[in-house]
Write a structure and sequence with these properties.
The chain is α+β, with helices and mostly antiparallel strands. The protein has a domain of 75 residues: SH3 type barrels. Helix content is 33%, strand content 20%. It contains 3 helices and 5 strands, in the order ααβββββα. Strands 4-3-2-1-5 form a 5-stranded antiparallel sheet. A hairpin with a 4-residue loop joins strand 1 and strand 2. The mean pLDDT is 80.
């Protein structure tokens, strides 16, 4: 990646350019109005003709979910899917669409799970490491 420097004009540079423009207009024979604007400038639109642009709402889809699923599918990551009723399903995600996930399981039939029934999901390796941390804490607590 190249090292780029941000070039930002200062207020002094802007004023200097404005003053040069006024001097150039005087030399060319243009007079200035009492208000300080040059006659070559178009008139400002009236407030009734100004169109106010509304802010665009943020996108409804950030594609973060799609990226996460794709990453887990490509890596064949063992996932734990916790359903709304508390049931935990472990397996790899084979494919997904807008409303469902297909889960491949090792010792059980494959499942098609509707996303609306999923409470949350996490990597199975995170569950194993959390269990080990709990065991270490229990062991340390039992030591005198």
């Amino acid at each position: 990646m190249s090292n780029r420097k941000l070039i930002r004009t200062t207020l002094a540079d802007v004023k200097a350019r404005r003053d040069e423009g006024y001097q150039r207009d005087r030399i060319n024979g243009h007079s200035q109005r009492p208000g300080g604007t040059s006659p070559s400038r178009p008139p400002q639109p009236s407030s009734s003709s100004i169109q106010v642009r509304k802010r665009q709402p943020p996108p409804t889809e950030t594609h973060a979910e799609i990226y996460y699923y794709k990453k887990q599918i490509d890596a064949h990551t063992q996932m734990v899917i916790v359903l709304l009723d508390g049931e935990e399903i472990e397996g790899t995600i084979e494919w997904y669409d807008r409303g469902a996930l297909k889960i491949n399981r090792r010792s059980a039939p494959n499942l098609l799970i509707l996303k609306r029934n999923v409470k949350y999901m996490y990597k199975a390796e995170d569950r194993v490491s959390q269990t080990r941390h709990d065991e270490v804490r229990e062991f340390q607590a039992s030591q005198p």
